[in-house]
């Protein structure tokens, strides 16, 4: 369904870059998705020789795609209404969530279920907007106006639940690994790997906030979506670095177990930190969701 929405949005915007901005994706990602659709369908949807214009087959496909999406959205909304009759709070699990362990005494009376969803399944906050889950974890984003605007448009509120200690991973063959204690200036012009596509812009803003602060280091970003966290066990970062949360990200145990990777958790002598948050819809009709969030806010 996401690919159909991308195609419909592209047909409306008549521009890959404009469609990417509306979808909160990058232009190369949208272009790749449309090409994949065309390959699967066996015919061209877009005539790229004339800017972005639909082919005759593309125009016919657009009509059917809009009808499919309308029927799908109506069915989802009806089923979502039925699901809300249940009081159980659905919490998305992406990586580990140490703050939940701290809060078990405060939330054990609230019915909740853990919903395991891969990072690449939804763009930021889409799982909340679509009613797939009631609560998801993320990192602070109040420093990025675009993400703040997206959250506001969806009616998302985020509250801090923990402090996340961050680490930089790099191959021991990376020239940075031989510099001893690193400063931010050492990272000037460095390449940072981001292992996801749909969360690329979110992760890029997070990395820039933590490492650059003022955007003066000229960091470069390498989008490298991974199919499974187990790939961290053997992947070669090359000359790139990777920022991850020590006690949260699935990548953490794999990197710490490797002899060919150096882990750095300080820059300029200061620990790398970011606020860990939970996000939810303010107008969620399930009172248990708001009770759940209030309980987590009280945990030290």
Automatic annotation (TrEMBL):
Protein name: HTH lysR-type domain-containing protein
A Pfam family matched in the record: HTH_1
A cellular component annotation (GO) from this entry: protein-DNA complex
Superkingdom of the organism of origin: Bacteria
One GO molecular-function entry: DNA binding
Domain HTH lysR-type: 1-55
Family: Belongs to the LysR transcriptional regulatory family.
Taxonomic source organism: Rubneribacter badeniensis
Listed InterPro entries: LysR_HTH_N, WH-like_DNA-bd_sf, WH_DNA-bd_sf
Upper classification of the organism: Bacteria, Bacillati, Actinomycetota, Coriobacteriia, Eggerthellales
Keyword set, alphabetical order: DNA-binding, Transcription, Transcription regulation
């Amino acid at each position: 369904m996401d690919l159909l929405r991308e195609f419909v949005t592209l047909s409306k915007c008549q521009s890959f870059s404009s469609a990417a901005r509306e979808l909160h994706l990058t232009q190369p990602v949208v272009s790749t998705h449309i090409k994949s659709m065309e390959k699967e369908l066996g015919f061209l949807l877009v005539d790229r020789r004339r800017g972005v214009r639909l082919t005759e087959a593309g125009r016919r496909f657009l009509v059917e795609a809009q009808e499919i999406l309308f029927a799908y959205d109506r069915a989802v909304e009806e089923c979502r209404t039925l699901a809300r009759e249940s009081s159980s709070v659905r919490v998305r699990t992406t990586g580990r969530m140490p703050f939940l362990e701290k809060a078990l005494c405060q939330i054990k009376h609230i019915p909740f279920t853990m919903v395991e969803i891969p990072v690449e399944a939804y763009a930021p906050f889409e799982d909340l907007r679509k009613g797939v889950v009631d609560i998801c974890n993320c990192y602070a984003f109040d420093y990025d106006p675009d993400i703040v605007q997206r959250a506001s448009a969806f009616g998302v509120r985020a509250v801090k639940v923990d402090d996340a200690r961050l680490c930089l991973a790099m191959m021991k063959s990376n020239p940075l690994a031989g510099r001893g204690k690193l400063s931010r200036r050492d990272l000037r012009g460095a390449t940072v790997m981001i292992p996801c596509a749909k969360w690329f812009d979110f992760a890029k803003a997070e990395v820039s906030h933590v490492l650059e602060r003022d955007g003066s280091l000229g960091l470069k970003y390498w989008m490298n979506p991974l199919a499974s966290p187990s790939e961290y066990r053997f992947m070669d970062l090359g000359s790139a670095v990777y920022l991850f949360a020590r006690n949260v990200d699935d990548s953490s145990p794999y990197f710490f177990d490797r002899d060919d990777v150096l882990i750095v958790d300080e820059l300029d002598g200061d620990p790398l930190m970011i606020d860990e948050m939970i996000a939810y819809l303010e107008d969620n009709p399930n009172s248990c969701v708001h009770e759940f969030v209030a309980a987590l806010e009280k945990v030290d």
